Amino acid sequence: MTTPHLTELRGGRIYDPQAGIDGEVRSLFFSADLGIVAAPLDQKEVREVLDVTGCAVMAGGVDIHTHIGGGKVNIARMLLPEEHLATRTQRGAHPHLGSGVATPSTRTAGYRYAEMGYTACFEPAMLPANARHAHMELADTPMVDKGAYALLGNDDFYLRTLAAGTDRAVLRDYLAWTLHAAQALAIKVVNPGGINAFKFNQRCLDLDEQNSAYGVTPRQILLTLAEDIQALGLAHPLHIHGCNLGVPGNQETTLASISALEGLPAHFTHLQFHSYGSEGDRKFSSGAQVIAEAINRAKNISVDIGQIMFGQTVTESGDSMRQYAGSAFASPKKSVLMDIECEAGCGVVPFKYKHQNFVNALQWTIGLELFLSINDPWRVFLTTDHPNGAPFTSYPHLIRLLMDRTFRQEMLATINPEAAAASHLGSLEREYSLYEIAILTRAAPARSLGLTNLGHLGLGARGDVTVYVDHPDRERMFTTPKYVFKAGQMIVRDGRIVATPQGATHVSRVDYDPLIERTLDAYFERYMTVRRSNLMVSDAEIEDLGGSPLIRHSPRRRA
Amino acid sequence: MGRPPSWSHFFSAGNAVLKLSTPTAQTPITHGDVACPFCGLLCDDLIVRTDRLQLTPLANACPKALTAYAAAVPVGQALINGKSASLDQAMQHALRLLQKSQRPLLAGLGTDVAGLRATLALAEKCHAMVDHLHSAAANLNLRVLQSRGWQTTTFSEVRNRADLVVLVGVDLNSNYQNFMRRCLAPADALQPARRAARRVIYLGPVAQAPRDAAGLPVEIIACTAAELTSTVRALQGLLAGQTLNLARSKRRTGLFALAEQIRSADYTVLVWASGQLRASDGDLTISAVCELVADINRTRRAAGLALGGDDGAQSAVAVCSWLTGFPSGVSFAGGQLQYAPATFNTARIVADDLADLVLFISSFSRREPPATQLPTIVLAPPGFKGATAVDVYLPVGVPGLDHAGQLVRADGVVTLPLKQLRVSTLPSTAELLLRLSAGLHGRPRQ
């Protein structure tokens, strides 16, 4: 006797780029236990049929780069009570009270992502010293799967080991150990060597400049990290926030950084902030075309854009060097800068992007130009570098800008006219298709992170599914999906949250020589103010205290 | 947060030495890398011996910690109106009081991260106001943070980078007693030249100047508590090239010398402890320090460092921020969260008669609840002095002694795991609060 357990979505148009399915009308079957399954032989297995005729059916959205949990996010919350007072949720709107849009409280972030059809979010800047805290916040972020990237490449242990040039295996073991200790999914570098250099009063560090304390250059750090990550076999390549973020003319650094990788896989994050020329009267111009061409040629590189949107937000970054420079433009006039634990730093600077401001308007066009000029959607992921370019809640608006040229031209007409005139944006005719949006927002980021059961609708997928009512206004369509399912369970119906499951935490586990722990024990005891054993976040802290099942991705180490 | 914590397998492999003693263990066990929960420094290099229920720090504990470990009583008795009761009876009574209350205040909040999560869950369920016992000190910092921001650093940076450290009215004799040893006077540093050059300057009343500087040269620039802000401002003026409007005095000479030292230092750290500043104008002192740091950073490197976070205060600010968006002074009473630190603090709430019940948590230091006629429920470890004077006393364990847990360190970045060092029968604060939450009927929507 078959017990009915499956949900059937009937009549929807399926967009599943991983399988090459582009709007084909067919049923989708899944259950909470099994995830997505093939059509059952016996219809009695179907517990409920939901008619989604005319709707677009996609996997749950995957955000590869969103600052939603950890020290700097929490500092931003404390810094900006005015934003939180203005954005408090009403009792009953969500299962729990909360506040904030640019830096939402943790549960509110989870609810809003789910309401938008996203079911997995990745915090891109976790300091190992702050990893326990970051995971506590992620534990209190319901509805979505999550994970985080550990920051390396500014920590004194890495730099002095690299400078000593002794044993490369030590660095690889250190990377693998860090993934384990911080419960991280991937490795990120921010302003390679520059955050450390700022502690020694260097105010900029270009690709081939030496960090004054250790004599190593950003180029060396990038190449070494990228090589070692490949050797460890991690799915996601080195996640790079490059040198000279936000500096006019930084396109040259970005081009040189792409070359510096010598063909190794790498991900350049919030590319918009790294695509600036220095031409014109204001010595600030778009480098989007040059950078897009370079990305089109460099098949080893993936990017996310970090689109800006006009309005109030707060920028938060590990890049204390560049955030210090940016603090002069804080709005409101306050900011937090930190040097942190011989690992890295952080900077939190509130910012208001104004559509009549030449620089901000050009930033807006540069991001869109990059989206529209990079040809391969599998190497571009949709982000606003939440909240640095804009809060993640602006994704539906961004999707409309990408899909609807008429709307884009209307918006272009409202920005600073000099910036509009200086931009190629008006001449770009490309409109993204739903299929391409499905690539940018789920299939490609999931594949890049090695998440085999997310981002697609094939067999073996967990059953994270979003159903959108097709509407010519794509912003409206992507703001409020009809249904959202997490691991086969309905969590949102017509914009209302109906269940609040706890998502899993994704981590990478790579073997390392346990001798590295002895080396680190000595290092921590001699120099640090925590013990190596106490820095490590245990599995039980994530699973039992945090209530999030761990999903361990274990690539085979190659060297 | 998910299901209630299961403490027993809290630690992963690699901590094998820290496996718990069983209740029947007769042989003493020595625990290494123990994080001490008794002040915001969370020194995690203690070695503690467990002999049955007796805990004895063998190394690296400061005098304050030694006293606290010695005073941690492992068995307790629940009380209702001063009379012995079973824990279940006392919990039932507490639940009835909470159920009746229309305007509860959850105060003290001296607990770990799990306890704070449970506190906020209970607060949301019963529409309570919440306030930590050190919120006045925390709010001095938050006022400065929220008005101008700051540039700060963390313990390991100070230990390795600083060549000049200025203690702004910080009394390291009565609290933060390991700060010198752990952060200022280590044997070695990543930049040995910085460590070798390190100078410590104390600014403040002579009586509170560091008595033991672990071999570091300490210079004292004496001023009264009331003069702290003007002294920092004078220093800031000197660095900006202004003439100094101070009478010829040792203070004046000292400030001239300090300004010169700052001009040539590579990494100056200015340390304050908001709980040791005057409540009336401590925020002005902090603000002056932060401005001075910002001035120095225009050409050299400097950073502030706030000591504090005792009784889980740093954790309270952190957990409250991420769960509500607001760091302290929050009320769940209305249709949306209310944030008003000047109103929702225990002293004001009691004085203005805003609450009709107090639930007070002090699981580290057994502080006294506010003096009030209101029905009062106290969660504190055994040995809490006012136990017979309150409506309900619920004995709880000390996080990091009786049960495992997590806390945020004073610098706001590092979090430490707390180990269970002995097997007592005392429940954790989180466990009791979650039980109260589960037993409470929801309130109607407002």
Summarize the structure.
The complex is a heterodimer of chains A (559) and B (446). Chain A is of the alpha/beta class.
- Main structural class of chain A: alpha/beta
What composes the largest sheet of chain A? Answer: 10 strands, parallel
Specify the number of helices of chain B: 13
Estimated helix fraction of chain A: 25-40%
Strand order of the largest sheet of chain B: 5-4-18-17-16-6-7-14-15
Name the pair of protein chains with the most residues at their interface, and give those residue counts: A-B, 79 and 77 residues
Number of strands of chain A: 26
Sum up the overall morphology of chain A in one term: globular
Structural class of chain B: alpha/beta
Can you give the helix content of chain B as a percent range?
A: 25-40%
Q: Indicate the radius of gyration of chain A in whole angstroms.
A: 23 Å
How much of the sequence lies in strands of chain B comes to 15-25%
Please report which band the strand proportion of chain A falls in: under 5%, 5-15%, 15-25%, 25-35%, 35-45% or over 45%. 15-25%
**Over the alpha carbons, how many angstroms does the gyration radius of chain B reach?**
23 Å
Number of helices of chain A: 20
- Would you tell me the overall average pLDDT of chain A? 97
Instruction: Give the low-pLDDT segments of chain A.
Output: none
The separation of the N and C termini of chain B measures 25 Å
Give the low-pLDDT segments of chain B. 1-24
Average pLDDT value of chain B? 92
